[in-house]
Hints:
There is one protein chain. By secondary structure, the chain is an alpha+beta fold. Helix content is 15%, strand content 38%. The chain folds into four domains: 3-83 and 506-543, no CATH class; 100-164 and 428-491, no CATH class; 170-243 and 346-424, Tick-borne Encephalitis virus Glycoprotein, domain 1 (Sandwich); 256-345, no CATH class. It contains six helices and 38 strands. The strands form ten sheets. Strands 7, 8, 11, 12, 13, 31, 32, 33 and 34 form a nine-stranded antiparallel beta sheet that branches. The protein is rod-shaped and about 160 Å long. The two termini are 20 Å apart.
Amino acid sequence: MMRSLYSGVSGLKTHQIKMDVIGNNIANVNTTSYKSQSVTFSELMYQTTQTASGANSETGKAGVNARQVGLGVKSGATKVNIETAGSSQSTGNPFDIRITGDSFFVVSDGLNNFFTRDGSFYVDGAGNLAMSSNGYNVMGWGVDQATGGIRKDTVHPLQVMSAENLTYPPEATTEAYLSGIIDKNDPQVSSEAGRIASVSIYDNRGYAYSAKLSFKATPEEGLYTVELTDLLDSAGNSVKTDDIKLGSVQRLANPKTLELANGYRVDGNTLYYTDDNGVEQPINLNDPNMSAGDKAKVASAYGYTTFEEFGKNYMTVGGAPKTLNQMLNEGNLASALGAGGAIQSEGRQITGGQIQYNPATGAIQSVNGLTNNLKLALTFGDDPDTAFETVNIDFAPSSNYNNNKVSTIGAVSGDVNGKGTGRRLGEMSGISVQNDGMIYAAYDNGQTKLLGQIAVAKFANASGLSKEGDNLYTSTMNSGEFDGIGIDISADGGYMTTGVLEMSNVDLSSEFTEMITTQRGFQANSRIITVSDTLLEELVNLKR
């Protein structure tokens, strides 16, 4: 039998294999991250009819080459063009991820790890990041709860929407600061109510409150007081109690005489005023249970709008300073009255702070006499079950300048670096994947949280990976083994891009060219069989 007949058959078979590969490439021209294949041929084997002989130096006869006849062709290798990246396809889906570089995503069916360049992912019903095509879990690293960073141990499924990740816990405010200008000529600063600045704070449960701080001028140049006047909840209701205090008790020495206004008179322990009907009404000055209305009348009698401000005046009684409010609570307010009902006030007592600005420069100089601590503490009592934390309010950024009678002093939650702001409970509003594969959740309270990091695998010989279908590969002895941990994609200069998928790297022009040469090769080999058959036919015809 003629050897050329079998050589032609081997040629048909190998070209058929090549055509199969070309057909598969073209079929996957739009398959996400598909890597094209190519076939190389190699000689099958040779039949040696005579071996080579060397030259004979004695006879002078030259050497003779070996005589060998080839027996056909075989497919030498089916190579995967795995190093060439496909074009980018923009999808706008934040869970569609393209890898730039030589790495592979690691996915798992629950038992085995696979590798893929197909980054078409979604979040399943259990909150796991998974492949859209087959539901295999995307593998990566979790977050170390102690450090808040990524813990790069054995890869595991990334559950990005677990119950604990759907919300961000609230946090109490612990820091705040006052910035802006206090102008001494501002009428509000000189008023009884003072210039109000509001500090927004949160308690440990995420409820919002507003602390009202009042700034007031004193007769001393550059010296102002600040007090907590009220604490309001989000509905505007006052929650102020005696346990809530700003700073410490301070006494401002400013002796003055508080005279009775016209229309009022004092007789013994009784203050008299005339009502709207022209009838004189009495108020017992020593009544510790005096009504709010009567207290307002007493304050008005001495030129004050509120009894709270009036009661801050103090005088020395029995060798100890006492406020008028304390004297009323002790049932002894009338003893503070002098001739004609006048009160000799030694100054004003506040629970808050004295803010001293440098009269020459306008810069803050001290708080309650301290130059190394320009903060006041807003405290909420000693109750261990309180939901509040102490808020340290820094006055250092404020200043005392001329601003055309307008003060701009205002409060900001958190310190100047944004720490200690506090927050309400946050609901997850979105998830994003960074270039290095780190996954962050965004919450509607302005916070972000690291949820994990997508790990990747890299192989010394990526073309040695075994195709498993579904855009998946498995490692082989020739590709190198996966260590179960993976690497950070940025370690070798690679990165991830979201909203984009890697397309197939099939080049149709090359495939059609290869198809033409394969077709011609197949035709030529079929002619070998035809001609060999004709020769055999002539041989058979010799017997005729």
